[in-house]
Amino acid sequence: MQNNSSYPPEKLHHGGRLRAAAVRYNLPLENWVDLSTGINPNGWRVEAIPAAMWQRLPEDDDELVEVACQYYGAPALLPVAGSQAAIQALPQLRSSSRVGILNPGYAEHAHAWQRANHRVKTVTPDQINDDLPNTDVLVIINPNNPTGAFFPIKQLLDWHAQLAERGGWLIVDEAFMDVTPEQSIASYAARPGLIVLRSLGKFFGLAGVRVGFVCAHETFLAQLDALLGPWTISTASRWVATHALQDSTWHETTRHRLIQKSKRLQLLLSQHNLSPDGGCAFFQWMWSSQAESIHEMLAHQGILARLFTTPLSLRFGLPDTEADWSRLNKALKGIADNKT
């Protein structure tokens, strides 16, 4: 599918647009429970950042790369300004290609490849094997956003091998992988044509520092580094990322906490006849022909879920406090009562 849109290209909208929701529904910001992003609501607590971090240019030879390689189990990686920066840059490193992108999935992937005039085709998991011979680049989100579906490492490596034989790429977006590190493919990323994206935004709850990583072969990383240019991440963000990645006690505690909260959310939705069709440790996802009306009813009560139109569905992130859980329960009960 060729991109024929006018410049500037249409900007996609995502979760977390709380100010826009506050205006639309005439509710003050402080009255909202934001479940639209899938970000860990109890993120890593940032300590006081040393004053010197604000006065120095970023230094690539600090500890960040070494610490990140150890955390992700990657042979080599490149820090970037959030995985979104990599998503936008990767299409610029290939000539016109046939790109298969998982659907449903994170929409920025298709948007970036289309904008760079590649031929994009969206594929469901069941279509990938049949389409692979006619594909140069395959983009997988693992676990998938918004469905939460996982792809086994063995399957991913098989797809990569087929693509790599003809100079193709397998791109695996692992933004939600931190709770299940044993299912990550990052340790194989030294293989040419395998590109793994990671981010501090979801698990660490540090979306605001804009830090992500590209795990890949060193030659490829050098090409990407040259394209992005110097100082892509601020000194302060590098400092925060280094310390967060080293906090192994927090990692283990948080993995357990997120799993338990996600199970609680799954049960709560099911109790109100909104049983999820998928999910992972960060969110629960449900398909429904009434998704738009449910989204509206929740929003009028100050609860912001993430509405998807293709397919028509809702994604619920994890509530933060017990008061938030109580508000969600009350709102869902009201919706269930309206249906009966």
Label this structure with key terms:
alpha/beta, seven-stranded mixed β-sheet, 13 strands, 36% helix, globular, disordered N terminus
How are the SSEs placed, and which strands pair?
Elements: H1 18-24, E1 33-34, H2 64-72, E2 77-80, H3 83-89, E3 98-102, H4 107-115, E4 119-123, H5 128-131, E5 137-141, H6 153-164, E6 169-173, E7 194-199, E8 212-215, H7 218-228, H8 235-246, H9 248-271, E9 278-280, E10 283-287, H10 291-299, E11 303-304, E12 306-309, E13 312-317, H11 322-339
Parallel strand pairs: 1-11, 3-4, 3-5, 5-6, 6-7
Antiparallel strand pairs: 2-8, 7-8, 9-10, 10-13, 12-13
Shape: globular
Estimate nothing, just give the exact number of structural domains.
2
Task: Give the terminus-to-terminus CA distance.
Answer: 44 Å
Low-pLDDT runs: 1-9
Strand content: 15-25%
Within the CATH hierarchy, at the fold level, what is the topology of the largest domain?
Aspartate Aminotransferase, domain 2
SSE class: alpha/beta
Largest sheet: 7 strands, mixed
CATH architecture of the largest domain: 3-Layer(aba) Sandwich
Helix and strand run: HEHEHEHEHEHEEEHHHEEHEEEH
CATH superfamily of the largest domain: Type I PLP-dependent aspartate aminotransferase-like (Major domain)
Number of helices in the DSSP assignment = 11
Helical coverage, percent range:
25-40%
Mean pLDDT rating: 93
Number of strands: 13
Which CATH first-tier class of the largest domain would you pick?
Alpha Beta
Rounded Rg:
20 Å
